[in-house]
């Protein structure tokens, strides 16, 4: 925050209040279970989902998910009970999520490719009632033989429902729209990930807004390609299945292959797809202009969308590109902008608040800033997560009340933003050390905390910097200087404890990390990494590649 920004705020403290509120939410108390059951009945004969080898109609999905829901209820699943899903992307994964919701529980996605230590960390923190998994033996090994834990259920037994099998009658316990719908774990600065628990009220509002905005139904196809541990996957799964559209599940790992995605979108006649901007850039290089006639809308989020990329898309494929913004703690997305004309600013706006959302930009004292001034973005409204699971103190710190002398609740995003004179939000990066790399949110402090657990590391600092081609890369600096063997051991140590996207491209070791006058690590003074062994003297460094 600059001094000029604060002076401007003092001169006119409420100039942007009229921009802050989206349209009123649609609230009728309904839950995802209510909406799924309605869709299953309305669209019974329509195709519901497929993954290239298996396909189900809405009636078939209702049967498979209903049988699973009945077993989950017998295992004790109901409102506010968490069920972990540990599975590769497939029709079975979608059935598992639908089954948890029909049982009245909240689903928790757990990536089976995570290191065993991280899987155990998340499961220990979430304390799920049951775990649905492709490979029960691998999950049991990750839990390290703990006794009295959750019920493990093998998803293979629901891959093919017995002919004529019918779900048990009834839908279980009564459910409120304030009950949890899902829990997604995000990066934590202390080295421990935190689970954002989102209630039905927030995600139902978000999905209804999306249907109101884009209008899909039978004949449409949504591609599910986002890893399901990231919140974009929530609308990819649920929006088509609530509206009679078809959901196509990309192959595991397919989201990283622009050629595969182009072929799949063309073959399956996908009409709606999401891209992180960096992947959209690669995707555009794979497709000829006009070669995807069925594609109606491309949703971009997860990173800043550049005007050059937006204009390149529009020039090649016409309209239909939309820039959305939102954190996991706020039901996926909270603002929206359609790129309907050439973008001429220095950035593409993240737009205006969607239905049921309030967005406000404040200075360090909690005061509104005027248009053009940069401040921290706060989010309020029905979209907010209910809690960080089993973390009441962290919940209280992150979700604040009393911002305007009221009991309204807001989430402090840690994102910097500003309003334009026309009431559009522009994004300006992070206030802390949390970053987005290739669309995935990473807390640099978590990487530093895990590196600091290695016995040879005294201090650690993680940063994201561009390489010679201008592409972002994750770098880790540690002290004291390490020999080549110890650096290699540190790489293996991190690989055992962190997900793949958290692993640094390069580790550089220094005799000591540069410090500010207050004793904190001076990240701006960290040198560019070099190759080769350690040099001589106080500034020596050693680098090891991923």
From TrEMBL:
NCBIfam families: AA-adenyl-dom (TIGR01733)
Sequence ranges assigned to domain AMP-dependent synthetase/ligase in this UniProt record: 40-389
Name this polypeptide is given: Non-ribosomal peptide synthetase
Species in which this protein is naturally found: Streptacidiphilus pinicola
Domain AMP-binding enzyme C-terminal stretches: 446-520
PROSITE patterns: AMP_BINDING (PS00455)
Gene Ontology CC terms: cytosol; enterobactin synthetase complex
Region called Disordered, residue ranges: 518-546
Molecular function terms, GO-annotated: 2,3-dihydroxybenzoate-serine ligase activity; phosphopantetheine binding
Example GO BP: enterobactin biosynthetic process
CDD domains named among the record's database cross-references: A_NRPS_AB3403-like (cd17646)
């Amino acid at each position: 925050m600059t001094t000029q920004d604060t002076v401007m705020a003092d001169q006119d403290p409420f100039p942007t209040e009229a921009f802050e509120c989206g349209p009123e939410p649609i609230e009728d108390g309904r839950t995802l279970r209510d909406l799924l059951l309605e869709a299953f009945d309305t669209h019974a004969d329509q195709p519901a989902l497929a993954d290239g080898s298996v396909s189900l109609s809405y009636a078939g999905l209702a049967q498979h998910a209903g049988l699973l829901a009945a077993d989950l209820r017998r295992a004790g699943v109901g409102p506010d009970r968490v069920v972990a899903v540990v599975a590769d992307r497939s029709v079975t994964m979608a059935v598992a999520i639908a089954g948890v919701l029909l049982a009245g529980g909240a689903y928790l996605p757990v990536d089976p490719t995570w290191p065993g230590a991280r899987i155990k960390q998340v499961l220990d923190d979430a304390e799920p009632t049951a775990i649905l998994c492709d490979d029960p033996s691998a999950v049991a090994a990750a839990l390290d033989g703990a006794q009295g834990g959750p019920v493990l259920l093998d998803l293979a037994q629901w891959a093919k429902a017995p002919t004529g099998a019918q779900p048990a009658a009834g839908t279980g316990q009564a459910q409120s729209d304030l009950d949890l719908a899902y829990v997604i774990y995000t990066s934590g600065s202390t080295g421990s990930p935190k689970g954002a628990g989102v209630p039905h009220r927030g995600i139902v509002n978000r999905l209804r807004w999306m249907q109101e905005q884009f209008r899909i139904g039978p004949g449409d196809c949504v591609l599910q390609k986002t890893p399901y541990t990231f919140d974009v996957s929530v609308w990819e799964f649920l929006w088509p299945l609530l509206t009679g559209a078809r959901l196509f599940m990309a192959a595991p790992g397919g989201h990283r292959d622009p050629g595969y995605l182009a072929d799949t979108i063309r073959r399956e006649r996908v009409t709606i797809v999401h891209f992180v901007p960096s992947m959209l850039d690669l995707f555009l290089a794979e497709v000829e202009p006009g070669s995807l006639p069925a594609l109606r809308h491309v949703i971009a989020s997860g990173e800043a969308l550049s005007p050059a990329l937006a204009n390149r898309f529009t020039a090649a494929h016409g309209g239909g590109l939309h820039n959305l913004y939102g954190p996991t703690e706020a039901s996926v997305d909270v603002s929206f902008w359609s790129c309907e004309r050439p973008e001429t600013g220095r950035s593409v706006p993240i737009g205006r608040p969607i239905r049921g959302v309030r967005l406000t930009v404040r200075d360090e004292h909690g005061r509104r800033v005027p248009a053009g001034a940069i401040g921290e973005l706060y989010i309020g409204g029905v979209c907010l997560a209910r809690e960080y699971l089993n973390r009441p103190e962290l919940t209280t710190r992150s979700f604040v009340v009393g911002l305007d002398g009221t009991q309204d609740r807001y989430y402090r995003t840690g994102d910097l933003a500003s309003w334009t004179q026309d009431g559009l939000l522009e994004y300006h990066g992070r206030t802390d050390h949390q970053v987005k790399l290739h669309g995935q949110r990473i807390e640099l402090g978590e990487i530093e905390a895990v590196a600091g657990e290695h016995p040879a590391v005294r201090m650690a600092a993680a940063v994201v910097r561009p390489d010679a081609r201008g592409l972002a890369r994750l770098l880790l600096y540690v002290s004291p200087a390490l020999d080549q063997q110890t650096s290699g051991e540190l790489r293996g140590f991190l690989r055992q404890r962190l997900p793949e996207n958290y692993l640094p491209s390069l580790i550089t070791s220094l005799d000591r990390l540069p410090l500010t006058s207050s004793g904190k690590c001076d990240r701006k003074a960290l040198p560019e990494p070099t190759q080769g062994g350690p040099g001589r003297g106080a500034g020596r460094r050693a680098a090891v590649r991923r």
